[in-house]
Amino acid sequence: MKGAIRIAVDGMGGDHAPSEIVKGAVEAALQHGVEVVLVGRKEILRSELARCAPWASSLPIADASQVVGFHESPAAVVRDKRDSSIVVAMNLLKGGEVSALVSAGNSGAVMAAALLILGSMKGFDRPALGALFPTPSGTILLLDAGANVDCKPDFLVQFAHMGSIYMENVFKVSHPRIGLLNNGEEETKGNRLTKEAHKLLRKSQLNFIGNIEGKDIFRGLADVVVTDGFTGNVLLKASEGFSEIALNFLKQVLNSKLEFKVPGFFLAPALEAFAKRLDYSEYGGVPLLGVNGNVIIAHGRSDAKAIKNAIRIAKQTVEQGMPDVMRG
After folding, report:
1. 292 in the Ramachandran plot: left (φ > 0), alpha (ψ -120 to 50) or beta?
2. Which of 52, 108, 197, 224 could lock 56 by a disulfide, CB 3.0 to 4.6 Å apart?
3. What is the pLDDT, as a whole number, of residue 87?
4. In what order do the strands lie in the sheet with 224-226?
5. Residue 74: its pLDDT value, please?
6. Which residues of the chain have pLDDT under 50?
7. 3-state helix vs strand vs coil in the chain, percent to 5
């Protein structure tokens, strides 16, 4: 695999680590043609690799003795757990030993490590966490999905610039439409943050289309939707919960009566395609934009499929040269 893109994968991060993380990394190495460097406790990761396939034992491992829990303070992790899988992986990225990093671990710690070790890009005060949502007309990007709970109006404008660049280069959307998440379409609606951000976005050179209400996001009215990290994260989690319960309700209805089971059988392929569109594991992970490196944050509940797809996203960001593109 000489010359392949090298991607560091946090082998100890996530609810299903290390087994599902390792399995996903092995599948990605096989299917996506990347060189995966697993980061974590070497003996544990080596044992997991041996269970996957005979050839998998040859995958490189960067030893890291410490593991970061989901409830640990992000700042304390970077300061006190310098041999954690997150910090070791971030240093590999900083040193150029890998071209991207994927982690399903403590997202706050990943973001803190990225800021302190990689640094933020010039022109962007804060990094933003992106989230991808499916719509009938394509995919939209939400920024911020949780990196910045408290935001200034300038931050939202910067998120809009990040999102526009990302959608144009990764999803090939020409002149992406930017929407500001608000509680009404009128310019006078919203709180102080959204009102001020609206004025600034109007003055920008971006393709700003105005306020977007929550009900309009999934209609595909915008390509990029910007908001503060608190609101964005609530929206993201609510959407994930609704997707899961909607699919469960649909399955219950189809199995509730005999007359529903026959058409349900013939509708199975369509339902499978529908479920796939709503499955977060299909997207794998989301980019942390605005830092000097390719960092992909995967869902804490990621299984092997999600990790495999997160590595695919990481490969794409490397191939697109996203940090250089973002710098302009």
Report:
1. beta
2. 52
3. 96
4. 61-63, 35-40, 6-10, 100-103, 295-298, 285-289, 128-135, 138-143, 224-226, 177-181, 207-212
5. 87
6. 1
7. 50, 20, 30
Cα–Cα distance, 76 to 72 (Å, whole number): 7
Q: What is the pLDDT of residue 119?
A: 93
| Residue 39: φ, ψ to 5° | -120, 125
pTM of the model: 0.84
> Nearest Cα to 36, choosing from 103, 129, 91?
103
Q: What CA–CA distance (Å, rounded) separates 146 from 150?
A: 10
CA–CA dist 250, 232 (Å, integer): 27
207-223: pLDDT as tens digits:
999 999 988 888 889 99
Tell which residue, 30, 20, 5, 17, has the closest CA to residue 86: 17
Q: Is the distance from CB of 181 to CB of 212 less than 8 angstroms?
A: yes
